[in-house]
């Protein structure tokens, strides 16, 4: 049996209690929502907290509020996000991405907040303890070298959330509550390109909700590359949202890529190419090619490196074409 | 440090004196001797450990028992009623939808949750609902047929029982 390391489960009923517990236990405690990312990692001894603070029982986190856009509690399950009619209609890329995460059972257990905070991934890291020990531990946990690029001063583990790039494309704001204050941060500022410190979040801060602006008149699409049609994490994700006027002229466009570095990236230059123009297939190809320049995949996920690099412009152009055509 | 945990499994109430960091899968198998639920990957990747919790198929290898106190937990042991196999168990046997049988309890539980929550099933919907359950012997075609057959039977029995 691959067992969890011992810990004590704390089950606060309110956010205030959760924050108080975190203050009390500091680094010894971690938050858990669905646990579908954290528990496998704990079983492999990537994390060994003495206390787990369960956010599941906090009612406030599971609310969805539709007003000037939508505000989705971080505790809402991916299954609910995928099947919510308003999200399907107005934020199609988000319902698509949530519906493509892992498997049906895991989508009922995993939450949107947990998905947006999901740990970065690497072939040398997502292994059990004896495997990592026999090779020699890497920088991300217990060691000091990076097996992917030995001269790299930082960890290059990959941001592997399906919903994260969608949040960049949809101009999401994340609402964080900590012991000091509550603050709002843009999705693209929440992430940073460092496989170990991949979130700009203080340890005590809880992601409480995600706010998406009103998006009527926009179309959004998410495309995911992975080996099997189920269970697998993204090897690449392309999220697009666009707004065209009646003549088909592009008024706004946002393209974001997932699983191409330690953070999801916004391809601003690529999107700019489309503005004020009526995108035809040549222009879409050009924009997708521009986006692909941002992807610097390393050999630390599933699938061949050269193939993954080629697929960036293919998936970006598919996502753009579909968003523009719909 | 052990703790008393109250679990309702297949309509039976259990008080379990166990370590709170054990997963539901471990408690079912080791403390309650309900070994019908299988352990495969123990990392959420295979679906062998699927049980139904308040109507939803979930992975018991990633569920903490303390979080499901007061919930209705169903395992494969609860499928047969009054000594009679469940329609799914019958159709799995009739169509030969099990080879080594290791994935079968998980498949049955995902399938049970599906046929009880949706009437209008087609093979594509069944495929999607079972897409978190891996079968190493890869007998998927028969499994999907068996679920379809059982769902038709389930519908006709619920229709007659509702008059
Ligand atoms: C087999 C398998 C396949 C998977 N496939 C995919 C996939 O295809 N795509 C994908 O994106 N993910 C995938 N996942 C990862 C994971 O299941 C999902 O990302 C899920 O949404 C995580 O949510 P959770 O609530 O379970 O997170 P948890 O495991 O509870 O938490 C994840 C991390 O976020 C922190 N956290 C959780 N909630 C909060 C909060 N509200 N505020 C602050 N910090 C918080 C936790 O401390 C932890 O570090 C997969 C996992 C498994 C086991
Ligand atoms: S990128 Fe390097 S340091 Fe980071 S997890 Fe992989 S091997 Fe370890
Ligand atoms: S044992 Fe739980 S999913 Fe494999
Ligand atoms: S019958 Fe052998 S794993 Fe499915």
Describe what this molecule looks like in 3D.
The complex is a heterodimer of chains A (326) and B (163). By secondary structure, chain A is an alpha+beta fold. Chain A has two domains: 1-57, 2-Layer Sandwich (Uridine Diphospho-n-acetylenolpyruvylglucosamine Reductase, domain 2); 59-117 and 158-325, Uridine Diphospho-n-acetylenolpyruvylglucosamine Reductase, domain 3 (2-Layer Sandwich). Chain A has helices at 15-25, 38-43, 78-83, 85-90, 92-100, 104-109, 112-116, 129-135, 163-169, 187-190, 268-272, 281-292, 305-325, and strands spanning 8-10, 29-32, 51-54, 64-66, 70-73, 173-177, 182-186, 206-212, 218-225, 236-244, 250-258, 265-266. A five-stranded antiparallel β-sheet of chain A has the order 4-5-8-6-7. Chain A has a four-stranded antiparallel β-sheet with strand order 9-10-11-12, sandwiched between helices. In chain A, strands 1-3-2 form a three-stranded parallel β-sheet, with helices on one face. In chain A, helix 12 (281-292) packs across helix 13. The mean pLDDT of chain B is 95. Chain B is of the alpha+beta class and 163 residues long. Chain B has two domains: 3-78, Beta-grasp domain (Ubiquitin-like (UB roll)), CATH 3.10.20.30; 87-162, Orthogonal Bundle (DNA polymerase, domain 1). In chain B, a hairpin with a 2-residue loop joins strand 3 and strand 4. Chain B starts with a strand and ends with a helix. In chain B, helix 2 (87-95) runs antiparallel to helix 5 (140-161) and helix 3 packs across helix 5 (140-161). Chain A binds chain B through residues 1-9, 11, 34-36, 39-40, 43-44, 54, 56, 102-106, 108-109, 229-231, and chain B through 1, 19-23, 26, 39, 42-45, 47, 50, 56-59, 62-64, 66-67, 110, 128-129, 131-132, 134. Flavin-adenine dinucleotide sits between chains A (30-38, 40, 55, 74, 78, 101-102, 106, 110-111, 113-115, 117-118, 160-162, 206-207, 231-234) and B (43-45). One FE2/S2 (inorganic) cluster (FES) binds next to loops of chain B.
